[in-house]
Amino acid sequence: MSEVSNGGFLQFFDNPTGVLAPEAVQGFHRMGISELATLLDRAMKIVGHNEYPREQEARNLISLKLPVTTFKDIERELYGIGGDNLGKVHDVMDAYATKHAGS
């Protein structure tokens, strides 16, 4: 979420942390924020139509071909759910981490 809130999905997918997108989808489901999992999954399918590319270089080559506005609608939905600076999402993640600390 830090990457997305800093520079959108393009930045997230371009950076090394983009490798963790499939795990983020699973994590959102476990935290009970499946709407975010669905949004991330939609964004991932734009980057990898059949299979999400784990290699950063592969994601970079794909994103170079995408218009800057590719994820605009998905990001708008994300902020509609998560609020300014995605604070609501961070609150859910913090509560989940606190509840499951030491598990």
Report the helical percentage. Answer: 55-70%
Output the number of helix runs.
6
Q: What kind of oligomer do you see?
A: single chain
Strand content: under 5%
What does this structure look like?
The protein is mainly α and 103 residues long. Helix content is 68%, strand content 0%. It is globular, with a radius of gyration of 14 Å.
Summarize the topology.
Elements: H1 2-14, H2 21-30, H3 34-47, H4 56-64, H5 72-82, H6 87-99
Helix pairs in contact: 2-3, 3-5
Defining traits:
single chain; 103 residues; mainly alpha; 6 helices; globular
Would you kindly provide a brief summary of this structure?
It is built from six helices and no strands.
